[in-house]
Amino acid sequence: MDGWTGYDPSRRLTLGGGERGRTLPGGDLTGIVRARRLSRAAMRNIRQNLFFAFAYNAAGVPVAAGVLYPFFGILLSPVIAAAAMALSPVSVVGNALRLRTAGLQ
Q1: Is 47 helix (H, G, I), strand (E, B) or coil?
Q2: pLDDT at residue 22 in the model
Q3: Which of 3, 10, 35, 47 is deepest in the core (most CB within 10 A)?
Q4: Using CA atoms, how far apart are residues 60 and 81, in angstroms rounded to an integer?
Q5: 37-43, long-range: CB within 8 Å, 24+ apart, which pairs?
Q6: What integer pLDDT is reported at residue 47 of this predicted model?
Q7: Largest Cα span, the chain
């Protein structure tokens, strides 16, 4: 059996699937829809963060290594490179905080 839903008299909705079950207090079936929307929003957020991290590193590491110096004479200061690397997690956290405003209703 792939997944199951049960309801008990104590007004708790129990969802099961695989090895683990979930319990939604109050027996409100709309909680299933909200949980699914939150799950999809979280996965979309994870994919965005992975894309941003890949793009950031694909562009930032060669510039920090001096690839642009022979063509344009541009060198990246180690201080600027360190600041950019320190601000990378800030963009991930900022993107993750958008989940608070996700339309789950």
Answers
A1: helix
A2: 60
A3: 35
A4: 8
A5: 37/102, 37/103, 37/104, 38/99, 38/102, 38/104, 41/99, 41/102, 41/104, 42/99
A6: 92
A7: 74
Q: What is the pLDDT of residues 16-26, one digit of tens each?
A: 555 555 656 66
The answer to whether the beta carbons of residues 9 and 73 sit under 8 Å apart is no
Task: Name the residue with tokens 């997690």.
Answer: 89
Amino acid at 2: D
Task: Please report, as a single letter, which amino acid is at residue 95.
Answer: N
Cβ–Cβ under 8 Å, residues 47 and 55: no
CA angle (105, 41, 61) in 5-degree steps = 150
Helix (H) or strand (E) holding 8: strand 3-8
What tens digit of pLDDT does each residue of 37-66 get? 888 888 999 999 888 888 887 887 888 888
